[in-house]
Known about the structure:
- The structure is a homodimer of 131-residue chains.
- The first copy, chain A, has a three-stranded mixed β-sheet with strand order 4-3-5. Chain A has a two-stranded antiparallel ribbon with strand order 1-2.
- The relative contact order of chain A is 0.14.
- In chain A, 41% of the residues lie in helices and 24% in strands.
- The longest helix of chain A is centred in the C-terminal third of the chain and has 16 residues, at 93-108.
- Chain A has two domains: 1-71, Arc Repressor Mutant, subunit A (Orthogonal Bundle), CATH 1.10.10; 73-131, Dna Ligase, domain 1 (2-Layer Sandwich), CATH 3.30.1490.
- With 131 residues, chain A is α+β, with helices and mostly antiparallel strands.
- Chains A and B meet through strand 3, strand 4, helix 4 and strand 5 of A and strand 3, strand 4, helix 4 and strand 5 of B.
- Strand 5 of chain A pairs antiparallel with strand 5 of chain B.
- Chain A binds a DNA duplex (30 and 30 nucleotides) through residues 1-8, 23-25, 37-42, 44-46, 48, 64-66.
Amino acid sequence: MKKYSRQREVILESIKMRRDHPTVDMLYEDLKLQIPNIGIATIYRNVSELCNCGQIRKIKCEDGVYRYDGNEENHIHFECNNCHRIFDIKLEEKESTKIKNELQNLANTINAEFDKQEIMLSGLCEKCKKQ
Amino acid sequence: MKKYSRQREVILESIKMRRDHPTVDMLYEDLKLQIPNIGIATIYRNVSELCNCGQIRKIKCEDGVYRYDGNEENHIHFECNNCHRIFDIKLEEKESTKIKNELQNLANTINAEFDKQEIMLSGLCEKCKKQ
DNA sequence: CTTTATTTTGATAATGATTATCATTATTAT
DNA sequence: ATAATAATGATAATCATTATCAAAATAAAG
């Protein structure tokens, strides 16, 4: 059974609010302001739990540190090779369905049961390409 | 300047030969048979170098350990949630171009300079879904 | 409301993959 | 051959993440 905890509530709220795909450390720094004695292990435990429930997504970046994403819209990710920020690229409903169908067909070619996908683009973001 | 080394040659050859997306440890175990006193740091150094040259690809999996891929065909990846193996899904030239174009258009919506993509599907592989 | 049972927390130790360091060895250039 | 430079192997250091455990918080029962 799952018990309520203020820590989990605050962690989820923060991830859903932010659009910068924070790491556990980034969340820790931020949440200390609200709950000064929060432990970093609590954040690790809860992001892991929230991923399992499907409430947030975990993304793996070039540097190998996990980041967390609470954006519920259909979207894919773009990582800048220069500033290493991650951007969301919103998908229209139609586009999203189309891509899902294509990927479903590809999964069929190996007779797999397709559940989820993660599409990560990389290159230079708008700002970095100007420099 | 880049100097030849037998270690690098053997590492690249092994990655290109295999289709099981080995980790550094898996490569280490295998290559010890050919070069008994090879050091694991040498493998870390060389896979990293080979990725930078674009000769192999690094893939990030659910368990957080990097795997390496020497398959030069156009393909995407499928990770099984049960056995955690990674499968290649081959793309026909036409399909590959189509997907690249779609992703290029998406990258344009945030004015980014699109360079590479990584598409990772997940679910159950053929064997695991039968159980 | 108080007591009991169970889960979660915070602190911290342990783990494990990866990177850094450095003396020695191998490769390339002269 | 000799000198210059880069790569190696061994191992220490780093750092993100997980495990452990006593104390605190939450939920259930009386």
